[in-house]
Structures are given as C-alpha cells and as structure tokens.
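Records of this kind hold a single protein each, on a pair of labelled lines. Below, a sample record shows both lines together.
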Amino acid sequence: MSAWAEVGDRCWVRRYDEFDLNIGLVVGSDGAVLIDTRATTEQAEELRKHIREVTDVPVRWVVNTHAHFDHVVGNSVFDQAEIVAHENTAAAAMLTATTFAVAKVIDLGDRRVELLHLGNAHTDGDAVVIVPDADVFFVGDLIEESAPPSYGDDSYPLEWPDTIDRVIGLLSDTAKVVPGHGAVVDAEFVRDQAGDLGTVANTISGLHHAGTSLDKALTHTDDWPWPLEKLQDAIKRGYESLGAPPRPTLPLLGPS
C-alpha cells in the first residue's frame, strides 16, 4: 500500500493493494470530496484514518465513479457525507445519493469540483471528476493503467471509444489523470488506450458485419490489443447490441 500522493494542489490519490484501487481526495475551504470508498467497511474505516494523515477538513461529499462494489461498499462509513453519483450508478448500487444525469458542480468554498457523465463505457453510470484549478481528472474505470480496461457484463464496448474521446477533448497536455486502478497517467496514455478501445470496438463490429457467429467471434485470435480471455464479455455485449449477425448470402442470378 502506498502513501498519499499529491497530484495537484490539495488533490491526493492513494493506491491500495486490494484491487490495486485508487482513492481520490480533494480539499477545499468548506470541506473535502472523497472519490470512491473501497470494497468493504473495514477498508473504509482504514481509509477514514488515512485521510487524517493529510487533512482535518471534514469529508462532506463522497463521489462514486460507478456502481461496482470495490468503489462503493465503504460509503456507509462516511455517514456524515452527502453521497453523489450518476443516476444509473445510484440505481445499480442501490445508493441513497444525490444524483445527476449529465453534469453537477460541487462548491468547496474556494474551488469547485465538476462531475460529468460523458456516455456509456465501463458501465452506464461512469462519472468523470474534474478539479479545474489543478488540471486533475479522476476517471474511475474508464481508464486503467495496471491491467486492460475491464469489460464486464454491464459494459458498453462499442460506445466506450466515443466516451473516451469526449474525455480526451477535455484534457490538456499537462493534465493528471487518475485511473480507477494503477498509476496516475497523462493525456498521451489516455489517447493510446483510446486507440486500443477503438480497435476492440471495430474488430467486434467487423466480425459481426462479416456474418461471423458469436461462438466463432469468441475464439477469434487476431487483431485484439489485449488477451482474448479478457474480452469475452466485450464480444458478447457487442454482439448483443448489434443483434444477430447477418446470414451470408450468395449473389442472386439475374434473369437468363
């Protein structure tokens, strides 16, 4: 487990061994925003103690980047904080939260934190947390550094590249990007991973358009940027959104 790293003015990240998970903390004059809360209440209790290593400012807001358990289960430990999440995240994780659909601003007194939902990707409720004055972006599992992006059975592989392109449109060359898991990265890393996400989407669409069955697509070994076993849900979800592959047909003969 690493110590807190300040990646921008009063913007900290701590990377935990469990799930290689990043937790974010943004401090302002009127309170702190905590970004995700770990996978158990015991881990969250430890997190609460760790927060006191860098600030005595109370955590007044908790933002969940998406609904998966490793990001939300610790919420109950921060019972004095307002929980903020995208409306789909709140529904999926059954959170009692202040929800937003597209955008929300949290006023910390001397600075603001902006929340954006830019489209479907890792889930249908991914929130990007932006600290404009520090040029810091907490992007949850939209980007991963220490493993391939996680395509689960609630992911949107064909939409993910467009969503990441919208994130890229917000990034300066000096932006610090905190992924859900792994080391802090820069805009170039995000652009590179966006290209790989696009390759996955295009390969799925190409196989489908060619009439390849789902079973055969699941064993297709060419073109992927990541190991095939990491992409099984991506292929299934892509085919589900595209519908049944077209049946190959022979050209019809004209009249004799």
Summary: The chain has a mean pLDDT of 96. The CA atoms of residues 32 and 59 lie 5 Å apart. The first strand starts at residue 5 and ends at 8.
